[in-house]
Amino acid sequence: MTQAEITVRSATLDDASAIAALTKEYAGEGIMLERPLENIIENIRNFFVAEYGGEVIGCCAIAFYTPTLAEIRSLAVLSRWKLKGTGRQLVEKAESILRDEGVPEVFVLTLSRQFFLRLGYSEVEKEYFPQKIWRDCTHCPKLMACDEIAMMKTLVPSTTNSSLQ
Ligand SMILES: CC(C)(COP(=O)(O)OP(=O)(O)OC[C@H]1O[C@@H](n2cnc3c(N)ncnc32)[C@H](O)[C@@H]1OP(=O)(O)O)[C@@H](O)C(=O)NCCC(=O)NCCS
């Protein structure tokens, strides 16, 4: 099992159940917000999946906030696939799409500080993203006891247009 054999691609409606199961597993551990199936289907064009041998082993999504700001969210890799480069591939795919869209700033709300540090993200105050707080946080059960940190990265435009595959 090597990183080269893992494929990251845009999600299709057939992937929706697998994505829901992934987010449910980690939501049960309090690590991320569960995404209901109907919400995933509604937003399927913003999801990516990592696949190995026909099995969905990871997922992530992009949420657009302003023409210059987006969030990477719903990032999850199956437990037995962790630390094999899948999370990195998913994030890099999302970043590549954002570069092509001309979106220069990306943020995450996460408990996985070390992982995002490795990928070049820096910790910032959550209040830096009022758009996020207005849109999602006010509905979150952890609102008054949020343990996630905000991290962001400025995307340098690429010179090649390699992500639109
Ligand atoms: C966070 C998560 C997506 C990482 O996926 P992954 O496939 O295991 O990560 P990768 O193998 O691509 O790791 C990339 C780098 O981060 C490092 N890393 C990953 N998880 C780490 C951790 N928990 N602590 C320290 N370093 C970590 C890896 O060692 C690797 O370092 P390298 O650049 O030296 O090779 C995965 O652990 C996960 O699904 N966690 C639960 C859900 C979650 O927290 N999602 C984030 C919500 S925003």
Topology of helices and strands:
Blueprint: E1 7-10, H1 16-28, H2 37-42, E2 47-52, E3 55-66, E4 69-77, H3 86-101, E5 105-110, H4 113-118, E6 122-124, H5 130-135, E7 149-154
Parallel strand pairs: 4-5
Antiparallel strand pairs: 1-2, 2-3, 3-4, 5-7, 6-7
**Name given to the CATH architecture:** 3-Layer(aba) Sandwich
Largest sheet: 7 strands, mixed
Instruction: Count up the domains.
Output: 1
Shape: globular
The average pLDDT score comes to 89
According to CATH, what is the class? Alpha Beta
Distance between the termini: 23 Å
CATH fourth-tier homologous superfamily: Gcn5-related N-acetyltransferase (GNAT)
Low-confidence stretches: none
By CATH, the topology is: Aminopeptidase
Order of helices and strands: EHHEEEHEHEHE
Describe this structure in words.
With 165 residues, the protein is an alpha+beta fold. The chain has one domain: Aminopeptidase (3-Layer(aba) Sandwich), CATH 3.40.630. Helices cover 28% and strands 28% of the residues. It has five helices and seven strands. Strands 1-2-3-4-5-7-6 form a seven-stranded mixed beta sheet. The protein is globular. The two termini are 23 Å apart. Bound molecules: coenzyme A (COA). Coenzyme A is lined by residues 26, 31-32, 75-77, 82-88, 108, 110-112, 114-115, 118.
In short:
The protein has helices spanning 16-28, 37-42, 86-101, 113-118, 130-135, and strands at 7-10, 47-52, 55-66, 69-77, 105-110, 122-124, 149-154. With 165 residues, it is of the alpha+beta class. Strands 1-2-3-4-5-7-6 form a seven-stranded mixed β-sheet.
